[in-house]
Amino acid sequence: MLPLTEKEIRTSFVNASLKERTNLTLPPELTTLNWEKLDYLGWRDAKIPSLGYVFTHLDGGPVGIVLRQSDGKVRSRPQCAWCEDVLLPNDVVLFAAKRAGQAGRNGNTVGTLLCSHFECSANVRKRPPVAYIGFDVEAARQHRIEALRMHAQNFVRDVRDGV
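Request: output the structure for the sequence above.
Response:
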């Protein structure tokens, strides 16, 4: 992930109003993030905990979306759709994002199951268990990192393009 400035964050949302962009709470560690170990930037709003924000790079620039956590509870432990980690140490929740443009103004949304505090980048970098003799752990880890980037980008693209 390439580093983002406050200005880039506030101007790169595709599904947020000017008021939402102005009022959002930036992540407190923005200036000290290890950008090389992030596949996307995600954080929860400190003032409104039901809101989350996700940024990824698409088509040469940053694209951000606003997510809202669903109020409903799941009956069984879900799997994060982005990091697909089956040994998660954290909770997974349902987030919904209104689509960009007219579709979003019409109330159209898209949802996904995500790690509750966007821990996916750390999860995919953990050493996976050895599945069989000769299993290439490093190749499996790299595959998980690439898959996470693809999942995040595809979801953000889906919100942006209203597909």
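The longest strand covers residues 61-69.
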